[in-house]
């Protein structure tokens, strides 16, 4: 059997609801949609998991994804702090002429030494 066409979400939802209510079997729904029975079972599982996550207050996010987002937010805050500290250091040393590297005067040609 070849790859079935992508069905709109509303059609999948309608089939899953009809299967869960007992109006259709998974095999009948699969025949009606032109997909495998396994696809209908996957949709049903995804539907139930989505409802479970919504009721758990996760808003549809996987706990793994939520923990990764928290980790990235923490790392982002640390990097912003480090950048701020480095910026202050650069400003502090940037005002002193003694620490500035000498600036080349005039046109610099590759291969020539410039004092």
From TrEMBL:
Designated name of the protein: Predicted protein
Gene3D superfamilies in the record: Winged helix-like DNA-binding domain superfamily/Winged helix DNA-binding domain
Highest rank taxon of the organism: Bacteria
Domain Insertion element IS150 protein InsJ-like helix-turn-helix: 12-57
Entries under InterPro entries matching the protein: InsJ-like_HTH (IPR055247), Trp_repressor/repl_initiator (IPR010921), WH-like_DNA-bd_sf (IPR036388)
GO molecular function, a single term: sequence-specific DNA binding
Species assigned in the record: Streptomyces viridochromogenes (strain DSM 40736 / JCM 4977 / BCRC 1201 / Tue 494)
Database matches in SUPFAM superfamilies: TrpR-like
Source lineage: Bacteria, Bacillati, Actinomycetota, Actinomycetes, Kitasatosporales
């Amino acid at each position: 059997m070849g790859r079935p066409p992508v069905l709109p979400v509303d059609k999948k939802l309608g089939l899953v609801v009809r299967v869960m209510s007992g109006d259709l079997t998974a095999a009948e729904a699969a025949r009606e949609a032109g997909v495998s029975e396994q696809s209908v079972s996957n949709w049903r599982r995804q539907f139930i998991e989505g409802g479970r996550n919504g009721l758990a207050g996760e808003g549809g996010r996987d706990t793994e994804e939520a923990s990764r987002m928290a980790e990235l937010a923490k790392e982002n805050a640390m990097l912003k702090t480090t950048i701020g500290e480095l910026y202050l250091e650069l400003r502090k040393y940037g005002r002193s002429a003694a620490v500035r590297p000498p600036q080349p005067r005039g046109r610099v040609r590759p291969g020539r030494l410039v004092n």
